[in-house]
Amino acid sequence: MNETLHAVIADGATPGGVLLTGTADGLRTVLAAGAVVPERSPEAPDEHTLYDLASLTKVVATWPLVGRAVEQGLLDIDAPLRDALPAMSGSTPSAEPTIRQILTHTSGMRATTRLDHYRGAELPLYELMCREPLDDVPGRAHRYINRGFVLLGLALAHVHGRPLDQLARELFDDLGMPATTYGPLARSSRVAPTEPRFPGAPRLWGAAHDDNAALLGGVAGHAGVFASAHDLATYAERLLDSYATADAPLGAWFRAGLVPQAEIEPGLHRGLAWVTAHGGHTAYHHGFTGTSLYLAPAAGRYLVITTNAIHNGPARTRLAPLRALALKVLTTG
Question: Is the pTM of this model over 0.90?
Answer without folding.
Answer: yes
